[in-house]
Amino acid sequence: MLALASLNITEKTDEEILAIARPLWRDLVKSSNEGKYGDFARSFSSSFALAMHQVVAGHQFANSELARNLSEEVDALGIIRRGEHVTVVYRQRSTKKPGEWLGRLVLGYEDGKVRIFGATIF
Predict the structure, then answer these.
(1) Is 41 within the bounds of a domain?
(2) In which domain, by residue range, is 65 found?
(3) Residue 5 falls within a domain, yes or no?
(4) How many structural domains does the chain have?
(5) 65 vs 11, 49, 60, 61, 77, CA distance in Å?
(6) Is residue 3 part of a domain?
(7) Labelling 121: which of 34, 62, 103, 113 has CA 20 to 30 A away?
(8) Parallel, antiparallel, or unpaired for β 113-121 and 70-82?
(9) Domain-embedded: residue 32
(10) What is the mean pLDDT of each run of 10 residues along the chain (122 residues)?
């Protein structure tokens, strides 16, 4: 009997995790800048999608200068493994506001696919 491949993302190398995370973060930045909530939430886990209230998120897109002006220039600072999830920590910049922000992307598997279980910039 063949063993099934493990679907615990914490077992991946840092390089493998970053290869998965980079396009997801890039897509979040792009859809946030464009104010496209549907695209923004496309890779969310079902639990995260339910927790993100669409009206509140839409209000944030409409009223947050930071959320609508994220730079594509980003640095991965590290990866934290916990349970069945990894958190990729980023240094995020804005195209309009001086300074740097901390970005957080939580990834794990849902139904055999990598999904976003959390995403914030602060």
Answers:
(1) yes
(2) 11-121
(3) no
(4) 1
(5) 37, 23, 9, 8, 24
(6) no
(7) 113
(8) unpaired
(9) yes
(10) 65 98 97 87 91 67 83 96 98 96 98 96 91
Q: Which element (helix H / strand E) includes 102?
A: strand 100-110
Token pair for 81 = 């493994």
Helices marked H in the chain: 14-34, 37-40, 46-51, 54-63
In this predicted structure, what is the pLDDT of residue 51?
81
Q: Please state the pTM of the whole predicted model.
A: 0.88
Distance between CA 52 and CA 31 in Å, rounded? 15
Judge whether 105 and 32 are in contact, CB under 8 Å. no
Which CATH number covers residue 86? 3.10.450.50
d(CA 111, CA 113): 6
pLDDT of 21? 98
Reported as half-sphere exposure (CB side, CA atoms, 13 A), residue 115 has a value of 15
